[in-house]
Amino acid sequence: MNLARAAAIVGSNTMLSRVFGFVRDVMIARVLGAGVASDAFFVAFKLANFLRRLFAEGAFNAAFVPLFSKALEADGKAEAKRFAEEALAGLSLVLLLVVLIAQLFMPQIVGFLAAGYAADDPRLALAIELSHITFPYILFISLTALFGGVLNAVGKFGAASFAPVILNLVLIGAMLLAQLHPASPAHALAWGVAVAGVLQLVYVMRAAWLQGFDLRLRRPCWSPRIRRLGRLIVPGAIGAGVYQINLLVDLWFASHLPPGAQSFLFYADRLVQLPLGVIGVAIGTALLPMLSREVASAAPHRAAATLNRAIHFAMLLTLPATAALLLIAQPIVGGLLERGAFDAAATAATAATLEAFAVGLPAYVLVRVMAPAFFAREDTTTPVLVAAVALAANIGFILLLIDHFAHVGIALATAGSTWINVALLALLLHRRGYFRPDPWLAGRLLRSLLATAGMCVVLVLVASHTAEWPVLLALLALVGAGGAAFGLLALVTGAVPRSFLDLVLRRQASG
């Protein structure tokens, strides 16, 4: 299993998903703008997305993949399949109960998350109604995560990483239908979320079946492995999902701000999710099963070396992305979103929020890379303790910043707390001997910084010559020039290792 190849598969599918996601967001911004309907939908959508990232992509994968990989390595495919069936039965039962309870108490749940909405605020009633529709998505996407975890553990990353594309395609279709029948576009989007969950499950389930994992739904049982899985999931929900918990805290505080604040945070977060998803999620997804197998086969030195290479690979791509978001946030937001109901004022507010989120982008990515080093060793307790500190810091930062900087202060607080998170993770990994930064990593990071600095000079020069251009054309010029500059400088400085270039050239020659 090759980390770069696996990350490339996940990253390319994630990039495809983000491209369709931007098309989706542009359509939502054009139709809904930043107001009552958009705020209500984003509350409902964030609730479903929060649970997806926290449990489906966070806690469940963090707990299930190492245990499944261990069973596969030690006991063979048949026993690993049996464990997956036990997990499927238990997860299905728990999820059904969660969905039923949430439907009964949805007014209270939404009322808590959007505590700043008055009882007669039209956003509150609409958000409750939309959340009833979107919440069952967590059932389907969590089962999708189980089948995806099975596929990832056996080195098949394509299907699970393509599943988010299905969600975006369905929501784009929902927006097209809403434009034809514009009575309630927010409801069309909510139903699109629910339908997409079913389609994603069917798609990934079929891919698992083709690999010989035609899982049967057994009677739920409390076996030792399921008890172990359950014990790992609870702390894993916080340890792997601290960024999502921070966003939920952001949502609560933003509900006390004037209309539009939640939308500015949503759009800025979506833009940050492009590099975070393509880089952080891709590497983290590929890294967890690889580290799990190396730990299970008693190869700790190999696992430490793999983590060093993963950090280099992540920062090679994250550093220029961070610099670009900080330098050209205004043309990025304007070129991608400013049309229809999304006006220049919304662009300025969203761009400022994007810059604040971008301060924490390297930390967001490093959390995704470092957390699997704990999860691979079946340790979800340490990340939960670190997450608790970071979460408390986020709340403290928000209280300090929100009065002066409003929604921008919320984004800055999230970035700051994530830096605290990654600093503590790195310190603990080093103390336990799981992470030893080697001279090779230090040298590559320095070269990546030099290449990024050169790219920044190019961006400033190009921006000064394109200030009067149409915003989309200026954005294309900036992205093209910046990307070309960094690519060239990365080669000249040696930020990209020669071995990686040789691998790429051999693959192209063989293709």
Helices and strands in order:
Elements: H1 3-32, H2 36-75, H3 77-104, H4 106-113, H5 122-134, H6 137-153, H7 158-180, H8 185-210, H9 224-239, H10 242-254, H11 261-296, H12 300-327, H13 329-337, H14 344-358, H15 361-375, H16 381-431, H17 439-465, H18 471-493, H19 498-510
Helix pairs in contact: 1-7, 1-11, 2-3, 2-5, 2-6, 2-8, 2-9, 2-10, 2-11, 3-6, 4-5, 5-8, 6-8, 7-8, 9-16, 10-16, 11-12, 11-14, 11-15, 11-16, 12-14, 12-15, 12-17, 13-14, 13-18, 14-16, 15-16, 17-18
Would you mind describing this structure in some detail?
The protein has two domains: about 5-435, no CATH class; about 440-510, no CATH class. It starts with a helix and ends with a helix. The protein has helices spanning about 5-30, 35-75, 75-105, 105-115, 120-135, 135-155, 160-180, 185-210, 225-240, 240-255, 260-295, 300-325, 330-335, 345-360, 360-375, 380-430, 440-465, 470-495, 500-510. Helix content is about 85%, strand content about 0%. Helix 9 packs across helix 16 (about 380-430) and helix 13 (about 330-335) packs across helix 14. The chain is mainly alpha-helical and about 500 residues long.
